[in-house]
């Protein structure tokens, strides 16, 4: 059964993204994030050679004086995709291109941090997939 649409809808809600980060990311920056600033970012990208790609959902949240981007990929395939790291890297590159084009660099002129999150509910476990790359 393909639950992609229902999970996309769930993670289109700011509270669910906040709960995901607070529940699974055990790092100090999550405690410091201002979740009242949590905002969706466009997740469709057009590359320089006019290819169109879609992230499932992208959010940004204010951390002190700058933004951190959270790229959530919902992966609900019936079989593992051993090229998922490549897909995620492609989406991250396209997101960064959009950030550069729109001038949303940090005050230092650097790219903002992006946290890639892959949610996988298939079989076998995701940890088993990592050895098959």
How would you summarize what this structure contains?
This protein is of the alpha+beta class and 133 residues long. The chain is 35% helix and 29% strand. The chain has five helices and six strands; from the N terminus they run αααβββββαβα.
Can you describe this structure?
This protein is an alpha+beta fold and 133 residues long. It has one domain (4-130). The chain has five helices and six strands; from the N terminus they run H-H-H-E-E-E-E-E-H-E-H. The chain has helices spanning 4-10, 14-24, 28-32, 84-101, 126-130, and strands at residues 33-41, 44-46, 52-54, 57-63, 66-75, 114-120. The strands form two sheets. The protein has a four-stranded mixed sheet.
Instruction: State which percent range the strand residues make up.
Output: 25-35%
Our count of domains comes out at: 1
What profile does the largest beta sheet have?
4 strands, mixed
Kindly provide the radius of gyration, computed on alpha-carbon positions and rounded to a whole number of angstroms.
15 Å
- In whole angstroms, the N-to-C terminal distance is 26 Å
Trace the largest sheet across and list its strands: 1-4-5-6
Q: What is the residue-averaged pLDDT?
A: 77
Oligomer: single chain
Number of distinct helices:
5
Order of helices and strands: HHHEEEEEHEH
Instruction: Work out the number of β strands.
Output: 6
Given the helix and strand composition, which structural class is it? alpha+beta
> Helicity level, as a percent range?
25-40%
Poorly predicted spans = none
Task: Based on Cα principal axes, name the global outline.
Answer: globular
